């Protein structure tokens, strides 16, 4: 019984980490209509920055500065923002699917940098011993996980509230206008490209934050943490839950990650070892089907975007 | 002496680049067709290469790869397998359209919704291969082909030269179909303006169907050639995804020959890159090219303006 | 300021929660084992390592079967619960957490990629005091972490670090008179480690590495890498790869007229690789593998594996995974209780120099249980020979040199522990 609680706490932490990333993506896609297919790239920039700033120094590495946890988090967000600004300047003007291909490529390139720039990233060995916040206070794994869960609840809650406010602010309304009808927005004197860039940077910053939180929870980072399939997983979460709606985004994370782990468990229980390889394929097919079926029969996701009606009408 | 060695190395890299580029071109043609006629970036296209290769594999295990023709490593059975795989992969593509993309079109889905769906379709198709054929690597023939030294220091595999030649034949055939047949005209009209095409009484659904079949067939040919010159495995197509898209965009979406030039350019760039940068970064080369193109010439080298930018 | 207050309040809340939860947790760990006893396995069954991991999983299951036929653990049958890590750290960590907390496994074995084993160790196994034996993770980082006391001593592996392979290969290469060696290596900790150690060794022995080319897995073609490696005009090629990519590269290398003086790493010692390349091109190749010295325990394992799965046990990680499971089975029987620390400490007691030798297979396991019951020391000689862990959980092992004779893999010669020690001394000084 205790074990199940302990596992659920752990599961909830992972869900909230993915949740933060999905909220960031939702600002880009759900609100602004930017197709970022390189989510894992910014997730990785955040994660690596956290590691480089906070891990204890080693002579063979340039980074590993041993700075406090909060400095790491701030640095991770700043680094993701800068990366997104550079990428964004070059790409936000592109048509939807071209932006997708470009950002997909960026994620591939960033992962290769992580793999090859050994002096900074530790190369394929990755970086170890990344400090977990307050690790010395909570010695027992379960109590630590409970603490981290509370921390994640606080952070995810803050991000959620902040994004909700932003979306409802005048700035957020412009983003939606740009998404719905760019020409009209431009005609009203809004510099669409600037707004798109701002949304791209802000969303990527949040995704980078999620990466930093993941790395400081696991205590280790390597290039294998940032493979392209993670982008796909996060997208599926957003689409299944309902893009344009932050509640939907979080629900999607819960469902998709739950399905992913539950199907893994089921396969390990039901499928004999000789066929486990095929079992994994079934699992991936299942996730693919969930995405396609959602798009076909519930294109707005489980909880779609709430229709926005001006308060003055009510 | 050293300079000589450097020169041969360069020449060999150019030769290899052109030959691998031919396979990329076959994949890029399908992407280009779907960008123009179906109007979305089909991320599942690369999986059709894998399907083509594996269908041909199944065919050759029944018929064997045959007695080698001349210097080639395979016999007429493999050529037949290309035809069979092409037809079957065309059907697979058509089935995917029926089950998913056609449904989405009927619901007037946004073209980005189609792109998402193609992510899901890619995952399903790739893992079906894993499920049906297993994870192990395969070759059409266990025989190893030794390269022929055509010029001092430059070695070519007869199979690869054959692949390059056949690619050019296929592209020419496609070009003729698009230029001369009624169907080709319909497809070109769709590329120009789907709404206008419909108004003019062109059977748009038929044009779409044939677009899927054609890109499936080209992909199958690319897949078989990839399996012939490299290896078959379930992720063989997926690993080409970025390179294929780069080739299609580089060439510009207005022209078939653009996609071919794009494929050859990407193949060349990849092979030449290791002479300059650490080979660990090779996989990023298509991406760097892509960024350069998108930044300076988003319509591609041979494309009409204003397609890529919003 | 406000931050501090919140933290204080949280701390109190946790203290209260823990007071409620912890005693129960502690009691649970102490009680007699409930049957069946569970051992958790984590392997990359899907993903690029899938074809390799499939056989490793079979080997693990064979070990579990032998334990059960030989009497199980503390009178209980052992249940093996295998999870797929898909080569993804997040998935692997989740699987480990699930196995420990929900299934209540008493020990873990896994996984292949160091990039997945490391986060499992640092985030889950070590904090939960869960012993973990890997068949295949070679990264030097594990040793460093153990030296820094960050693993709590809970990590073990049944294959030697890269150094053993690199030095032994260098020695044979020097003996064969190779002076200029090109290297193509997989861009992982395994490959980079091999380049570093091999370069050092071969220079000491009078040779030179003339070109090093890293490759990333899953590239559609390796023509460019092969060409780059050829540019140094080497008289031998050291290929550090896994069978599928390795076969592609070897074929391209030979097609393009590269030398057939090949040096191969242990992962390529599989009939698949030989078949994919073609045995006739591998007649002057040699490779290195750790341990698997010839002997009755090795033969017994080979036979059992062959019978059970109708395929050869030659392949990366297969011998090592069997030993990982058997070591766990023995240690769990030696341990006074099935708590993590007790099992951890017992893992070092399976190799008592004064003990009676026990080998592979169910009968030997039964024999070992009898010895353990009588309080007598044992000495496990497994599928990879005598398994002895050092302070960091690493094994040092003998090496063997393999070649291809006719169509089949053959063992050319073995290098004993003493040979290896002398070699290490010669190179490291």
User: Poorly predicted ranges of chain C (pLDDT <50, ≥5 residues)?
Assistant: 1-8, 22-31
Name the assembly state. heterotrimer
Radius of gyration of chain C: 23 Å
Helix content estimate of chain C: 40-55%
Question: Approximately what portion of the residues of chain B adopt beta-strand conformation?
Answer: under 5%
**Outline type of chain C:** globular
Number of helices of chain C: 15
Task: Tell me the major beta sheet of chain C.
Answer: 7 strands, mixed
* Overall average pLDDT of chain C: 86
Question: What structural class is derived from the secondary structure elements of chain B?
Answer: mainly alpha
As a whole number of angstroms, the C-alpha radius of gyration of chain B is 19 Å
Helix-strand layout with pairing:
The complex is a heterotrimer of chains A (314), B (310) and C (429).
Chain A: H1 2-31, H2 39-54, H3 69-91, H4 96-116, H5 118-121, H6 141-168, H7 170-180, H8 182-187, H9 192-218, H10 228-241, H11 246-270, H12 276-297
Helix pairs in contact in A: 1-6, 1-9, 1-10, 1-11, 2-3, 2-4, 2-9, 3-9, 6-7, 7-9, 10-11, 11-12
Chain B: H1 2-38, H2 45-63, H3 76-106, H4 111-133, E1 148-151, E2 154-156, H5 158-180, H6 182-192, H7 194-199, H8 204-229, H9 241-251, H10 256-273, H11 285-296
Antiparallel strand pairs in B: 1-2
Chain C: H1 2-30, E1 37-43, H2 50-69, E2 78-84, H3 89-103, E3 107-110, H4 114-125, E4 132-134, H5 141-147, E5 155-157, H6 162-175, E6 180-186, H7 189-204, E7 208-215, H8 223-230, E8 236-240, H9 243-255, E9 262-264, H10 271-277, E10 286-290, H11 296-309, H12 318-334, H13 340-347, E11 356-358, H14 362-373, E12 378-382, E13 385-386, E14 399-405, E15 408-415, H15 417-428
Helix pairs in contact in C: 2-12, 2-14, 3-4, 6-7, 6-15, 9-10, 12-13, 12-14
Describe this structure as you would to a colleague.
The complex is a heterotrimer of chains A (314), B (310) and C (429). The model of chain A has no long low-confidence stretch (mean pLDDT 88). Chain A has helices at 2-31, 39-54, 69-91, 96-116, 118-121, 141-168, 170-180, 182-187, 192-218, 228-241, 246-270, 276-297. Chain A is mostly helical and 314 residues long. Residues 305-310 of chain B have low confidence and may be disordered. In chain B, 70% of the residues lie in helices and 2% in strands. Chain B has helices spanning 2-38, 45-63, 76-106, 111-133, 158-180, 182-192, 194-199, 204-229, 241-251, 256-273, 285-296; strands at 148-151, 154-156. With 429 residues, chain C is an alpha/beta fold. Chain C is built from 15 helices and 15 strands. Chain C has helices at 2-30, 50-69, 89-103, 114-125, 141-147, 162-175, 189-204, 223-230, 243-255, 271-277, 296-309, 318-334, 340-347, 362-373, 417-428; strands spanning 37-43, 78-84, 107-110, 132-134, 155-157, 180-186, 208-215, 236-240, 262-264, 286-290, 356-358, 378-382, 385-386, 399-405, 408-415. A seven-stranded mixed β-sheet of chain C has the order 7-6-8-9-10-14-15, sandwiched between helices. In chain C, strands 2-1-3-4-5 form a five-stranded parallel β-sheet, sandwiched between helices. The termini of chain C are far apart. Classes of the chains: A mainly alpha (314), B mainly alpha (310), C alpha/beta (429). Chains in contact: A-B, A-C, B-C. The interface between A and C is large, with 57 and 65 residues.
